[in-house]
Amino acid sequence: MATTRRRTPWKAQDRDERAHELIEHILDTYGLGHELAIPMAHHHAANAGRLSVRSAARHYGLSCATWVSSATSPRCVDCPDENTPHVLHIRLYSKEEGRQFVIEQTGGDPGRLKYNPHEKDHGPRGFR
Ligand SMILES: [Zn+2]
Fold it and tell me: What is the pTM assigned to this prediction?
């Protein structure tokens, strides 16, 4: 582990496994495609949970939709009131379902993707 510490701060982080149990719970209880809404104390908790769920879904080989809502916004991004209760929304898909969803959104044209993984120059330095 020590040898990885010299890389970027992003890479040096330990693997985020905080949501692994949650993913297993969702799979056991609801299965794929079910939207789960989890009340959270404030914006940062909800967003941290969102990132952990994304990391865990990747670990399990699943696609997922995750977003954070508040009393004033169905998709809270630039938060106007961070210390109010928020809700973390999670929906898991199989990779194949995730692909199908993207195809439906883009009409099968990769050029219409919001983020195109085939464009190597896309995205900030260090995240390409
Ligand atoms: Zn917020």
Answer: 0.69
